[in-house]
Amino acid sequence: MSKMQTNMGDLKRQIEDLQSITNANIARLQNHLQITSSANFKDLSYKEQLNHLEALSDYGADIKNYVRESVSKIDKIAFDVFLSTRHNRQAKYALEMLADIEHFRSNNTPAKDIPFSVFKAMIAEEGIPVDDRNNLIRERGDKRYKELL
User: Which of 56, 58, 75, 139 could form a disulfide with 32 if both were Cys (CB 3.0 to 4.6 A apart)?
Assistant: First the structure.
């Protein structure tokens, strides 16, 4: 479970970093955009105009590259979280069967009304007392099963 917690912490940190760094880069980009789109831009020296236009281009490229790189990392971490939350098919089936057994036992369902797969699992289940299993076999009247000793 600690690997999953580590992945979730990494995912949270990557998303927070993406947001804060992207917001900072957007603020820088907006500063240069404001300068380049103002009426006074033509009054600046050619060198200053060039510097602002290059900075605008560079920050735009930086944002694109940073977001791509971050999203790739986030995608990998999110996929690792996804994989660690998947159920083992056999374990899931066994747990579902135990839940069905628990349901039918708690509701005192007559043995004839219990689906055969659940009945079969109940007879095989070691956690159910032998007397209860024998009662189920007698109630159901199933000749395939002999009473347990």
Answer: 56
The overall average pLDDT reported for the chain is: 89
Question: Cβ of 81: how many Cβ atoms within 10 Å?
Answer: 17
**Stretch 82-111: mean pLDDT:** 87
Neighbours of 142 (CB within 10 A): 16
CB 20 within 8 A of CB 70: no
Pick the range with the lowest mean pLDDT from 24-28, 38-42, 59-63, 83-87: 83-87
- Phi then psi for residue 83, to 5 deg, are -65, -40
- pLDDT, tens only, 12-33: 999 999 999 999 999 999 999 9
DSSP 23-83: HHHHHHHHHHHHHHTSGGGGGS-HHHHHHHHHHHHHHHHHHHHHHHHHHHHHHHHHHHHHH
Cβ 23 vs Cβ 63: under 8 Å:
no
Q: What is the DSSP letter of 113?
A: G
CA atoms of 62 and 32, how far apart (whole Å)? 14
Cβ atoms of 58 and 33 within 8 Å: the answer is: no
